[in-house]
Predict the 3D structure of the following.
Amino acid sequence: MHRFRLEFPKDVAAATSLLPSHRGPLTPRDARVLAGGQDLLGELKDHLVEPDTLVSLHRIPGLDGFELGEDLRLGALVTLAVIERDTALRERFTVLAEAAESVATPQIRTQATLGGNLCQRPRCWYYRNEEAPCIKKGGAECFAFGGRNKYNAILGGGPSYIVHPSDLAPALVCLDATVTKTAREGTETIALESFFTLPSEGSVQRENVLRANELLLGVHVPALGPGWKSTYLKFRERESFDFALAAVALAVRLDGERIAEAKLVLGGVAPIPWRARAAEDFVAGKPNTRSTWKAAADLALAGAEPLEHNAYKIPLTKGLIQKAFRKLA
Amino acid sequence: MKGARRTDGPAWPERDTLQVLHHDTPRRSAKDKVRGAALYSHDRRVPGMLYGRLVSVPVPRAEFEVDLAPALAIDGVVAAVKLREGETQFLGQAVAAVAAETPELAEDGARAVKLTFRELPFAITPDQALAEGAPQVRRGGNHSKVRPKGDEAATEEALAASDAVIDVTYRVPVQHHVCLETHGVLCDYRGGDEATIYASTQMAFGIPGAAAEVLGLDEKNVRCIVEHMGGGFGSKFSLDTPGRAACLLAKQAGRPVQLLNTRTDEFRAAGNRSGSIRRVRAGANEDGKLTALRIECEKLGGIGRGAGGPRPYHYEPGASYFEERAIHTHTDSSRAMRAPGHPQAAFASESAIDELAYRVGVDLVAFRKANLSDPVWHRQLDRVAAEIGWHDHPHRSAPGRGDGWIAEGIGFAISAWGGGGHRGAEASVSIRPDGGVAAMIGIQDLGTGVRTLVAMIAAEELGLRAEDVEPRIGDTILPPGVGSGGSVTTGSISPPVKIASYNARKAFAEHLASILDCPSERVRFQARRVFDADTPGRGLTWEEACRTLPKTGIGGHGAWDAKLQGSGVHGAQAARVRVDLMTGRVRVLKMVCCQDSGLVLNPLTWRSQVNGAMIQGLGQALFEERVLDADLGLALNAGLGDYKIPGTEEIPELVALIDEEDTREFPIGVGEPPVIPGPAAIANAVHNACGARVRSLPITPDKVLAALAKLEKEG
């Protein structure tokens, strides 16, 4: 394994000073940020990245902050286990708690962090294979496009067809969360929805706007407001532990027999958490019935362009959307 | 049928008189395994030990040259060897190996080995292998000669005359053994004339000869120890590539070397269960009789032959015809895997039987019984049908459709196996003056509870509790064992352990005759006491009796005797599944297995064996498949994250039923038969639930959704 320096900066400024100063996509040798290590260590062992420096965040005070009032503030180092176990959080931000508990295994969730979950790299078989010089790794081709693409994108694909592997991302986008990131030049808060980037926007080699020299500090989740209910339905091929084949983050506010408002974000089907605004607009004011759910599901998947082996994700995701509405009915 | 009973010499007592055997007995090593104290070859560390790693070319096929110098230039890399010259035949085939002071340095060394290679064209799918101008896989060509069996003309005639006919193709992909301990050994060699090999093997006695040859030692000076081993399932019968590499490296370094496959190596080059493609044409009449069966089978064993299985799979058609051939590809060779060929054959046969039963509208259990003459299967099918709730099930001759969200269904399948032992194993039992008893046989415990069984057999014979006997196994300095494959272990080792215990008891009785003042025939061993049968109230405790022994103690030896074991088992399974019609998820709710296997010596480990087999069958049914990229020649799911096996959430209610109507008074092995019917039973249950017929394993949500969509389209 490539030898690296493990740094333990004591504050954010010291941490960002250890990050690369260039603005391009990370090179394999560039310093990487180490939080829970659940994704990064796998990347190191698979020789996908071989950084000279790892910047641990664990001695920076405050990054594991957890503040739950009307709204919710979570530091980048809050573990998934903490998010999953807090009963007050679960009551108000159910979709987030359910997303957290759907990740991997209990062992992993005690180590894995919010920041790491949002910034994790794709699980595409070709990306994860050292021998495949795919477009995500600076190569010319997305091998999944014409290859074994059962787990790849049906929405928003091209020129890379990865799906974003995060479960927290669709849940937090559904909750209209914002994310705060910092660099030597300053700190910035943006909508989480605009944090993630399609491969056709920005660089195909990354999944978000975070620059090489930027550090994700945490997220802020506004209160959902009275009358809202939410849920996260994740479909795993193997329920014990698996990444999503498809996932649905849904929040609804009901008004008697009708749906007053809904927020619908899909996971596991696109290179970003996929907000289904047309479906959200459609259901507003409609009767809370299966035919509404079905029409919303059709609208959410209307633009899907499946590859050779993943057309099943269309009925699967439609089915999940209906199940999610049914669960909250 | 009743086993032959003998009045003189060792015999298994009537089962209702047994005190230790035939009673649930927890396995000896259970606590050690749970606490992590059990030592596997993976856990062994000896002074001065080096860690080995294999090196392979990153393409399926290449002409290559190896330069070890860059690896040896790394500080801490101690030895490096070439394992192969010329060409590679599949991805992951090892060409060299290195050994270093730490596992990390070994990996650095392995990556530093300079490979100069020219990639050669490859064929890794059957289509590629059979294409015009395909690169040659084996000297004899890319497929074997067709092996026909049966009467083709009569079969075609019967098909033409049948009331209902199906013509469908069933596919089973390559499945992996997924041994939790990967293949390999620790070769403890420090120069000199002797070596000890700690091996993860299912044939300890095959290791010393093979290792001695590599090390250049005398076989009698090489010992193999298998204290615990983490699964073999048919893939661990030889020293194998990692073992050979460890020996070569140890010889070069003059230091011990541990080399166990990485998980990637394990998936790419440690064998697999061959895939198969079976085109089935079969017919039945409205009276529920199977009229004709024609199967054309292609076995997909990579550079190996693959496994076929019996033809037909137990059902008795009026006429039958079979063709079988192997298709060779540039992929790792198949190896034996728990009932080689049988699950593939059963999946095709049992699915076809099911499809025909629905065509003619006959109850699925009745249809099976009408086409099986052996009454053992009849009673086993009845038993699993009752346990799974068949008689209250609404869809017994036509599939259900569900309620729009979910659907529930039941499926069946049967199996058969041999399970008898063979000669070669011997055992010794020694009784010490301090009361200790050791039962010794060198056999490895594949994970089935052999260690416990050895103690139980001796305890039964000597009137002791199982925990009073110290079983010593898994070491080639002990009396010889056999390879654990083909479900032969119980049938091979129970007779010699039984006879050795019997002989030790006889010798002890002779010794005690003068002390108890009675003829030796009247000396009884019961409940940790010895006494004269005529005066059971008097006598000695076990410890008192043992104190009368000479310092060297007393003992007995035993060899295999065919009369103390037997062969030939049946099995039937039923599965109940729930299909999520929205997502295509198949959840197995319950599996039931009824199995005959003669006298069950330890019902607890027997059930554990059967439960494990049902879980492995469930994995093959729903999850397991080797995925390769046919153009790039890459292994895409060569890891435990991407190659999915069942986890805790997937385990259904499991019911393992001993077929108590089997009154044979001798033991028969049960390792393999219960792994056979699961995939077929689950596939049949999916169809029964919702009408979706999935003809290729694994039954993943994409396939279920596609089958449901097809059903909807057809109305």
